[in-house]
Amino acid sequence: EVQLLESGGGLVQPGGSLRLSCAASGFSFTSYDMTWFRQAPEKGLEWVSTISDGGSTNYADSVRGRFTISRDNSKNTLYLQMNSLRVDDTAVYYCAKGQSAILWGQGTLVTVSS
Amino acid sequence: DVVMTQSPLSLPVTLGQPASISCRSSQSLVYSDGNTFLHWFQQRPGQSPRRLIYRVSNRDSGVPDRFSGSGSGTNFTLKISRVEAEDVGVYYCMQNTYWPLTFGGGTKVEIK
Fold first, then answer.
1. Chain A residues close to B43, C-beta within 8 Å
2. Per the CB < 8 Å rule, is B39 touching A107?
């Protein structure tokens, strides 16, 4: 079965760090760009970052310099290292297959609060 | 950044009746290779988003044929030919012709 499974969310204080993971299965992970999106409570969808199949990266202005996307092709896993977290980073974070989000994971909730 | 504007914000529909959602972009979404990277997503209550339509008019696998997409350049439309109860949710358009990827604000489809 083709699926994406995020983990690593939780409650963190402002200024703290978290690392999200996304385990992919059922498809050729190395052949696809992978993307992180997020959705703040009761808000719309927002693109966060994309990593190409070759490892090139792009970031939204709101996270550039604080978040780092990476992938481990040997483990079929996508990561999002989030540093210097702010209250407005609070959201459900989704990983997705491809730039055009062919498939989404179930999401992991990140709450930034003191 | 490319601004995506959806309308209406809310769309009450009678079961079995058609529905139409508009998405407009602040600049043409035609890429240099001729493709238009405009996609539609459905988010049912309490669920993750699901892609319905890719590159304007191509239905994803498993998507009922009552859903269709059309448009070109800066104007795009998602149509549901006959709304069913399972179609309730929020619909988003998204472009990935340009960085950053951007979404419309969403259209909430509900049953009258």
1. 45
2. no
Q: CA of A97, closest CA in chain B: separation in Å?
A: 11
Contacts of A93 (CB under 8 A, 6+ apart): A6, A9, A20, A36, A37, A38, A48, A80, A107, A108, A109, A110
Q: Are strands A45-51 and A34-39 parallel, antiparallel or unpaired?
A: antiparallel
Tokens, residue A62 = 């709101």
pLDDT confidence of residue B106: 98
Query: Residue A49: its pLDDT value, please?
Result: 98
pLDDT at B50: 98
- What 3-state class would DSSP assign to A77? strand
Question: Percent helix, strand, coil in chain B (nearest 5)?
Answer: 5, 50, 45
Tokens of residue B32, six digits: 């240099």
- Nearest chain A residue to B51 by CA distance is A102
* pLDDT tens per residue, range B51-60: 999 999 999 9
Phi then psi for B85, rounded to 5 degrees?
-60, -35
pLDDT digits 0-9 by tens, A73-86: 999 999 999 999 99
